[in-house]
Amino acid sequence: MQNKHLLGLENYPAQDIQTIIDTAFSFKEVLERPIKKVPSLQGKTIVNLFFEDSTRTRISFELAQKRLSADTVNFSASTSSLKKGETFKDTSQNIEAMKIDAVVMRHPTPGSPLQLTNYIDSIVINAGDGTHEHPTQAILDMTSLQEKFGYLKGLKIGIIGDIAHSRVALSNIYGLKIMGADVTLCGPSTLIPPHVEELGVKVNYNVDQVIEWADALNVLRIQRERMGGGMIPSIREYRNLFGITTERLANHKKEIVIMHPGPMNRGVEIDSSIADSDQAIILDQVLNGVASRMAILYLLLGGKESGDNK
């Protein structure tokens, strides 16, 4: 791997993304075994440093670490000395003084994982920093697409929904463009960042045209906790204009793959019948999340060859 850390996918080497994806497929075979564990990272200690609530990402990373036989420590900001006035710098340096090898961090402030690399020498993996990036989610999404289609270059991907507040969207844009896919963004104009076309993507405000064009849709939720009021007139209107509904897909009469990073607002951005259909690879994404994060940890932490899963 050319980079010591995984802080984001902007300008990330395409070869390294492909190496992670290929390694993830190897680890997915491990997850299908009766004993889902290899000793690749035995003796390594990884701290999960989460300053924001998380279900899928935190459990996925913790499972990936345990499947690789690493020692895992979970840190919760709500029960830490940060509540007593300790600085982020002191907290992180005290944790590293206990001889750890890597930190997986989620933080509400964009740029926090990069800042952490100024304070500690351990490997830092970004598990989501505010509205900036969520690189491991994009990698598991690309792993799922390659598993489904067999390739990424030339794939047509529509990203639908709240682009402006989505770190998943930004990491997917960077990653998919690096790997040669075509990306179109779709959502209310208030939720599309200005000048986003400069990233090499197209913007289309007609979801039906995007469905007709795309091979796959990555459907994002409306992040009401980040946006405040006035961004959309109503949930009902959003669903009518941009929701991936049973009726809307039935009108197109085409095969299209449906993705969602979770958590889903069923009945808002996606109908339950679509989320639970054969078109959806949402649960495949979850399993690929464990395999992808195993691959990332293994490659960044220099997993032992003897523990390889060949």
Short summary:
The chain has 310 residues and is α/β, with parallel strands linked by helices. It has 12 helices and 9 strands.
Instruction: Give the class from helix and strand content and strand pairing.
Output: alpha/beta
Provide the succession of SSEs: HEHEHEHEHEHEEHEHHHEHH
Averaged pLDDT, please? 92
Rg over CA atoms, rounded to whole Å, is 19 Å
Word description of this protein:
The chain has 310 residues and is α/β, with parallel strands linked by helices. It has 2 domains: 14-133 and 287-307, 3-Layer(aba) Sandwich (Rossmann fold); 135-285, Rossmann fold (3-Layer(aba) Sandwich). The protein is built from 12 helices and 9 strands. It has helices at 14-31, 56-67, 88-96, 112-117, 135-149, 167-178, 207-213, 224-227, 235-242, 246-252, 272-275, 282-300, and strands at 45-50, 71-76, 102-107, 123-129, 156-160, 182-186, 202-203, 216-219, 257-259. The strands form 2 sheets. Strands 7-6-5-8-9 form a 5-stranded parallel beta sheet, sandwiched between helices. The chain has a 4-stranded parallel beta sheet with strand order 2-1-3-4. The longest helix is centred in the C-terminal third of the chain and has 19 residues, at 282-300. The two termini are 20 Å apart.
Task: Please name the defining characteristics of this protein.
310 residues, Rossmann fold, 5-stranded parallel sheet, disordered C terminus, alpha/beta, 9 strands, 4-stranded parallel sheet
Secondary-structure map:
Layout: H1 14-31, E1 45-50, H2 56-67, E2 71-76, H3 88-96, E3 102-107, H4 112-117, E4 123-129, H5 135-149, E5 156-160, H6 167-178, E6 182-186, E7 202-203, H7 207-213, E8 216-219, H8 224-227, H9 235-242, H10 246-252, E9 257-259, H11 272-275, H12 282-300
Parallel strand pairs: 1-2, 1-3, 3-4, 5-6, 5-8, 6-7, 8-9
Helix pairs in contact: 1-5, 1-12, 2-12, 5-6, 5-12
